Amino acid sequence: xxxxFLAAFAVFAFSNIQAQGTSFGVTAGLxxxxxxxxxxxxxxxxxxxxxxxxxxxxxxxxxxFHVQPELTFSNGGDVSFINLNxxxxxxxxxxxxxxxxxxxxxxxxxxxxxxxxxxxxxFTKLNLGLAVGAGYDISESFFAQARYxxxxxxxxxxxxxxxxxxxxxxxxxxxxx
Length: 177
Prior knowledge:
Elements lengths: L1 H19 L1 E18 L2 E19 L4 E12 L2 E13 L4 E13 L1 H10 L6 E12 L4 E10 L10 E15 L1
Antiparallel strand pairs: 1-2, 1-8, 2-3, 3-4, 4-5, 5-6, 6-7, 7-8
């Protein structure tokens, strides 16, 4: 009986998603990465502007609620990220949506490699965060969005007083097929 209930629920949930529509797309735009580091009394706060590109799916759960998983690449200066974002989108009016969700990714680039060489096991490339933002559907296919990503974890894993965080701000446009 339990299996039958779960199967019926899965069919209902899938048909509901299909009814609202699923689309796939691409996104691109500007990114600004902000690196904040505090190690051994030395503090550094730098921002670098670059670009981001990504692939996405837009899963319509209901008319006002969508889920948007994304795989994105973003860079700024000599720092880059590959992130998997899963954003909940709440439509507050026709076309306007608020977005929030978790992100997980890995950092790379020359600056990251240099810090990793210096700190060794006291450094992790893993990036866990939370993204919040807004978007606007210009048409059924074209959209614009802006979001800020807060890093939750710390790249510095060593003992003592140290912290390395990288936050990002993205502004871009996209196209859904």
